[in-house]
Design brief:
The chain is mainly alpha-helical and 291 residues long. The protein has one domain. Helices cover 82% and strands 0% of the residues. It contains ten helices and no strands. Helix 1 crosses helix 5, helix 3 runs antiparallel to helix 5 and helix 8 runs antiparallel to helix 9. It is globular and about 55 Å long. The N terminus is likely disordered.
Length: 291
């Protein structure tokens, strides 16, 4: 059968659409697979039955404490999504991806990095002090961007304000799952240690991964825009990018462990992070209004 010009063009168009649709479905399946792996990985210690009844009780109480900030934070996330006219579906995908995709990928990367350092420099004072400060931003920040890129592709999100919110969602999801992981990690040390640990993480929740990822993603977005002609955004973009990585580094460094009669180190870090995320929000608003 010989196809005429219009028939050939129509067939090519339908083939291209069908191929694009299949590609999108394949990417969606891959994302769901990564999510499922992460969910199984993060919950396996609870489902294998090795914990005692009292340990399950400690996990339950610690989780309730964790929810003191997690529930209001998630509510605020979806509130802003509605206010900014962004569908709840990509926000949910980004939130879950931050927790159950970036989480287990970062865990494996950090473990392999630790094993490598122990093999190369097992007694190094430098690495004993700074391994976490270097490894955490080096691996966790890029991995937290992966769910955002999946969501941008699957849902076609393009507005800078929406991308900024998706980044915050990914960081928040990572933060909540990481806090829950620390509950499991601290469990062998007993009730007081586990509960005090999660109380400390709840107290520091206002300036954590959601801030780091929001700054890093905004910085990356502005750098890409600068490469497309908006050269005035390059310096600002690099500033936010470095700030996100830098805050993460300092938060995991010996600086955050400095103990003084009047607490200084953590408050300074928290105030700096919140100030920068506010500045980032102002930048996003200005760019939105300039369109």
């Amino acid at each position: 059968m010989i196809l005429h010009g219009k028939d050939w063009a129509s067939s090519l168009f339908h083939f291209t659409i069908e191929r694009s649709f299949m590609k999108r479905k394949s990417i969606l399946f891959l994302y769901l697979l990564l999510l499922a792996i992460g969910l199984a990985y993060e919950t396996q210690s609870l489902t294998e039955g090795w914990m005692s009844g009292s340990q399950y009780g400690i996990v339950g109480l610690s989780t309730l404490i964790l929810l003191v900030y997690a529930l209001p934070a998630v509510w605020a996330l979806f509130h802003f999504a509605k206010k900014w006219k962004l569908s709840w579906v990509p926000v949910l995908f980004s939130l879950l991806g931050g927790g159950f995709v970036a989480g287990w990928l970062s865990s494996f990367a950090n473990t392999y990095f630790h094993d490598m350092i122990q093999a190369i420099a097992p007694n190094s004072d430098f690495w004993n002090q700074y391994e976490s400060a270097i490894a955490a931003p080096l691996f966790e920040e890029p991995f937290k961007l992966i769910p955002i890129f999946f969501v941008l592709y699957l849902f076609g999100v393009r507005r800078i304000k929406s991308i900024f919110l998706l980044a915050i969602a990914s960081g928040l999801g990572f933060q909540i799952v990481e806090d829950f992981a620390y509950i499991r990690q601290d469990l062998p040390e007993g009730f007081s240690y586990t509960v005090s640990g999660i109380l400390g993480r709840v107290a520091n929740a206002p300036m954590s991964h959601w801030v780091y990822t929001g700054l890093v993603m905004l910085g990356l977005f502005l750098i890409v825009q600068a490469s497309r002609g908006r050269k005035d955004l390059r310096l600002v973009g690099w500033g936010y990018l470095v700030a996100g990585f830098g805050l993460h580094f300092v938060g995991n460094s010996p600086f955050s462990q400095i103990v003084t009669e009047l607490p200084i180190a953590i408050p300074v870090l928290n105030a700096t992070g919140l100030f920068l995320i506010y500045q980032a929000y102002q930048t996003v608003e200005r760019l939105e209004q300039a369109k």
